[in-house]
Write a structure and sequence with these properties.
Nucleotidyltransferase, domain 5, 408 residues, 16 helices, six-stranded mixed beta sheet, 8 strands, alpha/beta
Length: 408
């Protein structure tokens, strides 16, 4: 990455931009102080034109520092990068917060204080180029979109179970109460389709098999037909209250959207350093992309411990003189970053012999399952950090030998 390593000259003009939904706060300064009064400019073309007019009055080298806040910064960053190629420097909100703390404003967040922190960071030579962040930004947006669709799908599945229970009481039993009905499988789709077509009446085995979008065995169809006949009839007003047909249509649209987004994630992940994570046992594209989207570029983190701390799984610590306390996990950073690492640790505990042995050893020491997984996530984080830095795929035998050589 072409990140500046040296401080800027005093004559360099630094533009600090704190993005908002409607207005962006802008500072223009050099090493001597503010060159223009702080202003709030609209996110539209008129805002860009006003900023260009301000910059035209000040020659010399220019650096534009922008906080990468979700999607709010993208429009201005793309346009300014087109007008000033190579001048854009992006900063994570966590970097801005750390700079505010250094400047004595850690607990006081305002747009002007953020601009001051951006100016401070830019003058030190920090920041990442916009072109280098673009692939990761696209991947991060796709991962967040998929996360939202998965949450919507979960609600849709709960709604479908509720609607099906209104038409055929007791057919859709929850897990733990006998054989459950997974809505997303061909069996679940066949049962839903027949419930709509026959208004809750028991279908034949042939109808179930014909209505399945995938493979449905005769034995499975016989089981659900037999269970269907044993259910009580629906209440008289069930057909009026149940809107199962429209709910099934919405669910199928969600499934199609998810498939499209997952194809896009696979394509975007292949263009980033995170593609190496798919070599981990049990870690497919979606899990690898979910963690890579919030970890790249890996050069943001000096070592694996900083990456682990950024996920919020590192224990909170209090130290004063001889007093030293370790608390629960800090939960700092993004919940989706933490969830992604925990998901990878879980899959490794199931699919990697080395991690399975480590899990068994942690459980033998008396750790609860969730405690063992958090501890395992630290090992997984170290491994992932090294893979992202070296771009070498996972080798089970080499990893086991390295652990044994360290006495772990």
């Amino acid at each position: 990455m072409s990140v500046r390593q040296t401080a800027l000259e005093r004559s360099t003009v630094v533009v600090a931009v704190d993005p908002g939904k409607v207005m962006n706060r802008v500072w223009v300064s050099n090493g001597s102080g503010l060159l223009e009064e702080p202003v709030s400019l609209p996110v539209t073309r008129s805002g860009i034109a006003a900023l260009e007019k301000m910059l035209a009055a000040h020659g010399g080298e220019q650096v534009i520092a922008i906080v990468a806040t979700g999607s709010l910064h993208r429009a201005w960053a793309a346009e300014l990068d087109r007008l000033h190629p190579g001048a854009i420097r992006l900063f994570a909100p966590s970097e801005t917060k750390a700079a505010r703390t250094q400047l004595g404003s850690g607990r006081f967040k305002t747009d002007d204080r953020d601009c001051a922190a951006l100016t401070y960071l830019a003058r030190q030579g920090a920041g990442r180029g916009h072109a280098e962040e673009s692939a990761v930004e696209q991947l991060r947006a796709a991962v967040r979109h998929r996360r939202g669709l998965v949450a919507d799908r979960k609600k849709a599945q709960q709604r479908l179970h509720d609607q099906l229970n209104a038409l055929v009481p007791g057919l859709s039993a929850p897990a733990g109460h006998g054989r459950s009905l997974p809505i997303q499988t061909p069996t679940g789709q066949a049962v839903l389709g027949c419930s709509v077509a026959f208004a809750g009446r028991t279908p034949s085995i042939r109808s179930l098999i014909a209505g399945s979008p995938g493979r449905l065995s005769t034995a499975t169809a016989e089981y659900w037909t037999r269970r269907w006949r044993d259910c009580l009839p629906p209440p008289p007003d069930a057909a009026a209250r149940a809107q199962l047909g429209r709910d099934v249509g919405r669910y199928q649209i969600l499934q199609a959207d998810l498939a499209t987004v997952e194809d896009e994630i696979a394509r975007l992940l292949a263009n980033t350093d995170g593609r190496v994570l798919t070599s981990l046992p049990g870690v497919a594209v979606n899990r690898a992309a979910a963690f890579a989207a919030h970890s790249l570029p890996i050069t943001r983190f000096p070592d694996a411990e900083h990456l682990y701390s950024a996920t919020g799984l590192a224990p909170a610590m209090y130290q004063s003189a001889t007093l030293r306390r370790r608390g629960r996990i800090s939960r700092q950073g993004l919940a989706e970053h933490r969830d992604a690492l925990m998901g990878i640790a879980w899959r490794l505990s199931l699919c990697s012999p080395s991690f399975a042995e480590r899990t068994a050893a942690l459980r033998a020491r008396g750790m609860a399952p969730i405690q063992a997984r958090v501890a395992l996530a630290r090992n997984a984080c170290r491994l992932i950090y090294r893979m992202l830095v070296t771009q070498q795929p996972f080798d089970e035998q080499a990893y086991r030998q390295a652990r044994l050589s360290r006495g772990r």
